Amino acid sequence: MALFDARTKQTLSVDEVEYETNVLYLKAVNKLKEKVIKIQSVTCDLRKGLVDLFPNIPVQLCHFHQIKNIKKYLTNNPKTAAGIELKSITLTLTTTNKKDFESKLNQWYIKYKSFLNERTINPETRKSHYTHKRLRSAFFSLKLMM
Questions:
Q1: Which of 52, 66, 76, 90 could form a disulfide with 70 if both were Cys (CB 3.0 to 4.6 A apart)?
Q2: CA-to-CA distance for 133 and 135, rounded, in angstroms?
């Protein structure tokens, strides 16, 4: 597990671990605080409970993990135009700024809002559910990080 200074690209801390845990993140951040290094944000895989460990530090999902999550929802070869376009937008995460990314995502939503909100009725239960659940999950995952 490595901690970096995003501005200088300098490595601040490196610990060899079998796998990352919230306790290891907490220890690493506390080590840096002891060295009087101001922590401005934490970028990670957003493991469960990690955000709660740092109530006064912004925590964000790293782009690699966000793209990986979206591919999980959409697959590598989405079949719908909406899925293909959303995957394409997602892949610009690492090469665009926040304002442009939000703009692309909002334009996508306006274009596909009706499609995203389509519902299917189960003939046996007569209950409805969203037709494109995975697409919705992908979109709201990206929207949440904004």
A1: 90
A2: 5
For residue 63, what pLDDT is reported?
Answer: 86
User: How many whole angstroms from its chain centre is CA 139?
Assistant: 10
CA distance readout (Å), 85 to 8, 14, 17, 70, 76: 35, 38, 38, 12, 12
Contact 83, 135 (CB under 8 A): yes
Q: What is the pLDDT of residue 67?
A: 92
Count of Cβ atoms closer than 10 Å to residue 25 Cβ: 20
Residue 3: its pLDDT value, please? 76
Q: How far apart are CA 142 and CA 146, in angstroms?
A: 7
Q: How many Cβ atoms are within 10 Å of 55's Cβ, its own excluded?
A: 7
Whole-prediction pTM value? 0.74
Q: Which stretches in the chain have pLDDT values below 50? A: none
Residues in CB range of 135: below 8 A, 6 or more apart: 73, 74, 80, 82, 83, 86, 115, 116
Residue 16 has a pLDDT of 82
CA 29 to chain centre: 21
